Fold each of these.
Amino acid sequence: MCRNLLVICCLLALTAAGCGKRPDPFGHQVSRAGDASLRGQELLSEGELRRAEKAFERSLAINRGIDHPGGAAEQLNNLAAVALTRGDLAAATDLFQQALAINRDLGDAGAAAINLANLATVAYRAGDPAGAGRLLEEARTMAGRSGSVRVMVQVLCQMAGMALDRGDLGAAAQLLEEARPAMRGVQVRGSWNYQQGRLALARGDSAGALAFFREALRNDRAILNRTAMAADLMGLGNAWEAQGDFSQAFFYFSRACQLYATLRSRDQARLSVEALRRVNAAGGLGRSLQPYEQLLEPPWSDPACPPPPEAGPREKGPTPSTPPKPAGPEL
């Protein structure tokens, strides 16, 4: 998973028919769909992709069965997020496009902006940064039409992350500054602080990077965005490494490794082991890497969630050991 992923799992309003209230069959089905979607979010955040997919499919079926296209679009987007996490870019593209078509028809600019941002993530992972940039510009326009502060900040942070990847620090700083006045809510503060940490590292300000990554971790932990937390931990490891404190760097890289392994993010777990190996040697720490290397050994995941291929395009972060950060479920 990557920080650029804007999984929309908007919770549907739960409608209970209590004593003295008229029966509400439609509201009851909306509630069932919301419960299934919420369960899918939890499972996705835990790396349980097959079970998350079943939960989202159940929610999709309920929404289609009551002719609720907005709810169906949300679940198509969530199913696309599962496909993207597996590395199935073709399936992810198809599902995101289905969700986008529905949201365009509904005139839901905010949801359409998220679909476009997610399609940009797919294009970036497929090795098409120019296409990703065009999709993000369209997402930015749609976010502006929607009036949603949260969506706009997420899109701006995603654009800043891409600017950092190509080494354009000025553009990244400008985008993050544009997002600053609208940065409300813990859901977006994690993304903003994470990209600020990356920018500080790229500028050689390791102390500033530590402060930003700590704040990102605090905010991402508050909403239990596990993949984002793992990237925060990697950022903290990189910042300590830049300061020459290899023991602290090892501590944070080890925590990131264990979390990535729990989430079945094998490629990112491998990057964290490489970081552990690097700081262990640089600092002469003499620490055993066996507990972390064992995390990379099979069995890794269930048949529905095979490890991603060893070769192929991979997003770049500020250093080889810091991956871009997934935004996680948007509640």
Amino acid sequence: MTNEQEQIDKLTAAELLTTADRATHTVVSTDGSTRVFLLVYAFIASTVLSLADVISGTALLWLAALILPVLLVQFFSTRNRVKARPVLDGSATYSWYFFLGLIAVACLRMWTAVDLGAIGAKWIISCFILWQLLSSAQRALDKDRVQDALERSV
């Protein structure tokens, strides 16, 4: 093989790898419905956390039960999709985000909000925190799925 032909083969291989990497990122990022469901979960959890000191436990339970219809909608909207392969060697940073979420919920539970302004502030802050943690965990999982798929394809 000549040096010029090796150069062309390396360029072709690099282009193919770049195309595969782009396609993998596109497949993972086009699953936008997951982000919508995460946002709905963050809204419901923020509402429950914000109203915990104001309404009764029964009303909180009914409010938290709104997650069930969302789970059903998510199940029926995603059941015909191709199932994602389990990540064999993930970084597990999403587990740390889950742990941070538990700490955040514990801290938010300590904040007693009884007037309308405090409830609104607690809802906004808890929604922001939960959304950031959930979306960061999803991004970390997506990154691990992409890296795992690229490594397993070799």
